[in-house]
Specification:
By secondary structure, the chain is mainly α. Helices cover 82% and strands 0% of the residues.
């Protein structure tokens, strides 16, 4: 179940958000920093996002 949820979330992100995300990251380092912080928090505390 968790793997399915993770995979579907990843596919949604990959299909919808990444092109726009990369454009924004080129324009704004702050967004890149926010993404880095989010990924760091997700790496150490995945239970915050999957309950």
């Amino acid at each position: 179940m968790l793997a399915m949820k993770t995979t579907s979330a990843f596919l949604i992100l990959r299909n919808k958000s990444f092109p726009g995300l990369f454009k924004v990251m080129k324009n704004s380092r702050q967004v890149g920093l926010d993404l880095f912080l989010f990924l760091s928090a997700f790496h150490y505390r995945p239970s915050l996002y999957f309950q």
